[in-house]
Amino acid sequence: MADSIFARIINGEIPTEFIYEDEHCVAIHDINPQAPTHVLVIPRRPIEKLSDAGPQDQELLGHLLLVVAKVAEQLGVADAFRLIVNNGANAGQTVFHLHLHIVAGRSFKEGQLTGGLN
Ligand code: 5GP
Question: What is the DSSP letter of 92?
């Protein structure tokens, strides 16, 4: 499989500011933000999409959620953010390397799941 754009960002081929990084994942600003705050949390391990994850990824997936909370705190949006994972092309996934969108800083209507993110 060819490296995804996120693999190339993670390995430094495409210079991108990491607003958070540790041995398991990085967080970057989305290049095409859908809200005042739009950050992607990306595991270094190249899982194509969430539904490809298995038991071996359990700890990593939990870690990603804790990183989401930490990054939201860091960005001052811990009180109100939306977390989105597009799984599969028909769900709007365009980069086939698992990533979690943190979206914040605009209103989200109660009971409305989609927020204009693909
Ligand atoms: P998806 O549609 O797969 O859930 O989300 C992919 C996201 O990656 C999109 O929101 C898109 O704007 C973002 N993106 C695509 N290429 C790049 C890039 O080169 N740099 C950054 N920072 N974000 C990117």
Answer: T
Spatial CB neighbours of 95, under 8 Å, sequence gap ≥ 6: 4, 5, 6
Q: Is position 99 annotated as part of the catalytic site?
A: yes
Protein residue with its CA nearest to atom 18 in ligand 1: 31
Is pTM beyond 0.90? Reply is yes
pLDDT tens across 83-116, in order? Answer: 999 999 999 999 999 999 999 998 887 766 665 5
Closest CA to 26 of 62, 67, 83, 59: 67
